[in-house]
Specification:
Number of strands: 11
Pfam families: Hikeshi-like_C, Hikeshi-like_N
Order of helices and strands: EEEEHEEEEEHEEHH
Distance between the termini: 34 Å
Strand content: 25-35%
Strand order of the largest sheet: 3-4-9-6-7
Number of domains: 2
Largest sheet: 5 strands, antiparallel
GO cellular component, one term: cytosol
Protein name: Hikeshi-like domain-containing protein
Radius of gyration: 23 Å
Family: Belongs to the OPI10 family.
Organism: Lupinus angustifolius (Narrow-leaved blue lupine)
Length: 192
């Protein structure tokens, strides 16, 4: 049905390495591969195998879980996107349950990190690549902050309103483009 590769860390791993929970859910215990160093595994490549046909309205969703934390969605593959390299932003071990309470009790045995894969409705998933979406959001915020700071340097105050020159957006955009052309590293400063 599917396989995974941990870039620079493993050979392709097929579904038989995962523990099948039921018809639509599989778990990979990271202790099998890296022990407690699971958080050093930063990416996973998941791919559908040629002979498997996933319905167009379904996806293979990928989740990660640090010891003692809930599962966190990181991305998915579909028949239209049969492979993906997903970042693994491991949650802090012993994470909170949303109420601020730790999920581990004093007598709980230490848990291992896991990767979960499940067949889910595509329409119910928030994004196919959560980390890339957050990266784009941070980029947009940094560009907006740059524009705001530029505009603020030309602002005047009229009562409770800020007044800026009519051509401020054109001036900012030209300056932004010129700087990007002169300094290839400039735009890299916006990416996180």
């Amino acid at each position: 049905m599917f396989g995974v590769v941990f870039p620079n860390r493993s050979f392709p791993i097929d579904i038989s390495t995962f523990a099948q929970i039921d018809t639509f859910h599989w778990i990979l215990d990271m202790n099998t591969f890296v022990g407690e160093a699971y958080d050093q595994v930063r990416e996973i490549c998941i791919f559908l195998l040629n002979s498997f046909t996933l319905p167009p309205d379904k996806a293979l969703a990928v989740y990660i879980q640090s010891p003692g934390s809930p599962f966190v969605f990181v991305g998915a593959v579909t028949i239209a996107r049969p492979s993906a390299v997903l970042s693994l932003p491991w949650p802090d071990p012993g994470g909170c349950d949303g109420t601020g309470q730790l999920q581990l009790t004093a007598d709980a045995q230490p848990l291992t990190a896991k990767i979960g894969v499940s067949v889910e409705d595509l329409a119910l998933l928030p994004s196919l690549d959560v980390v890339a979406e957050k990266r784009i959001e941070r980029l947009a915020m940094k560009v907006g902050e740059n524009l705001f700071n530029f505009m603020q340097s030309f602002c005047g105050v009229d009562g409770s309103k800020l007044v800026v020159p009519m051509d401020i957006l054109d001036r900012w955009f030209k300056k932004f483009q010129e700087r990007a052309k002169r300094d290839p590293e400039y735009l890299k400063g916006f990416a996180l």
